[in-house]
Amino acid sequence: MNKEQIVQRVVGMDAHPDxxxxxxLTGPTPxxxxxxxxxxxxxxxxxxxxxxxxxSADDLIVLEASGNSFHIVRRLAGVGRKAxxxxxxxxxxxxxxxxxxxxxxxxxxxxxxxxxxxxEVWVPDEKTxxxxxxxxxxxxxxxxxSQMRSRIKSYLSDNGVRLKRGTRLAEDKMAEEQIRSLxxxxxxxxxxxxxxxxxxxxxxxQRRRLRSLIAEDVLGNPDALVLTRLCGIRELVAxxxxxxxxxxxxxxxPAKLVSYIGLNPAFxxxxxxxxxxxxxKHGRKDLRSLMMEAAQSIMRCGKTPLAxxxxxxxxxxxDKGANLAVAAVARKLVVMVWYSLMGRTSPPEQIDHAxxxxxxxxxxxxxxxxxxxxxxxxxxxxxEIIESMAxxxxxxxxxxxKYEPAIQGSKQQSSDGN
Length: 418
Prior knowledge:
Oligomer: single chain
Radius of gyration: 26 Å
Helix content: 40-55%
Strand order of the largest sheet: 3-2-1-4-5-6
């Protein structure tokens, strides 16, 4: 930590949904820090008045990443107090090893900042936080649908019933009649099946509703629409990137974004041996899986330069290098995402037929309810979006081009652990 970054007082705060505990520390290092004052179990609704009375604008309030830490930072910013969030991994280890109550925990959080061992977490703005909440809710709904389908199929299999391949339990109205006709079910058995089918339909309806909201946000967001110009990216992937990445300017070069997602090449060195290969996997697993899925769809498309580059790599690596080739394509795609969001792209291009089809699919995901919320007809909305996209800039991959850092400045200091 540089001397310029050291503040006169650090306030360690252990926050809970209903209350918080704080410790005001004075000193430049953990060893020299002196506990000036402590506050235990202060009601959370008194946060702003407490901060105004007991802290100054020169103090730095430090929290551990938790459920409401971002909300607390925003509330403190509203009364002119600076607060940051530390990555919970390192701070949590300190709490487990040393702290056994909130007072000690607050002190440890403050000293962890003074020690400089815990990374600072980027605090998303309110709009990005809304998108993250929607994204996580959609992922949970998708997971719930998969769980219920597996439960139903498992129960039917236990009773010697196998459904036809492609049967859509949540969408096909004939599925329930088909299940009923396959075996003479008892009243209790059929009651259980009906309950699981109902739960599946509810989860699927929730998934559809959330996807409609996602499509609505993407179609109204110029940054997200720019990403859909890239092969392999439609409304779900574009929304996931915008929601998780947030402000692209916090990544000073494409390599920073690649590393944040965890698609950078893995490297291991110990003694006289070293190893390089695969991907690092030390990043956002949720976004990494999205980019891998997008890369797989790109590999199935033979017309784009990135798909052709990926297939040439696959031929060189052989069948055993399939995952490596997909990861390499995903890494290239992340670079394209960075340049697209930064506006460092090629001149506008004409909207092709494939892009028009993609727009139509995104409007289909919007659904009837989404069109009613926007107050527009499908054809009019499609025409409006295509006309707006004709003036956007699109990134064109040059596999032989080597990029240098696009922005000059210091290395990125913050990370995102939430």
